[in-house]
């Protein structure tokens, strides 16, 4: 479960960067960028607290 949450966190962080680069290249409109970045931010804040700061049991 920890690996899945970490993967979701990393993907959501990428989705806060990729739309802005796409906007700068002219591939998407500002409204789409805002929507994608808000969604990615919410997903990151929802997924990250469940794995970050916890010790890994071996």
What is the secondary structure topology, with strand pairs?
Blueprint (H helix, E strand, L loop, with lengths): L1 H23 L5 H18 L11
Helix pairs in contact: 1-2
Q: What does this protein look like?
A:
The protein is mainly alpha-helical and 58 residues long. The chain starts with a helix and ends in an 11-residue tail after the last helix. The longest helix is centred in the N-terminal third of the chain and has 23 residues, at 2-24. The chain has helices at residues 2-24, 30-47.
Distance between the termini: 14 Å
Quaternary structure annotation? single chain
Q: Average pLDDT across residues?
A: 92
- Any low-confidence stretches, pLDDT <50, length ≥5? none
Domain tally: 1
Strand segment count: 0
Number of helices: 2
Structural class of the secondary structure composition?
mainly alpha
Please tag this protein with its features.
58 residues, 71% helix
How do you describe this structure in short?
Helices cover 71% and strands 0% of the residues. The protein has 58 residues and is mostly helical.
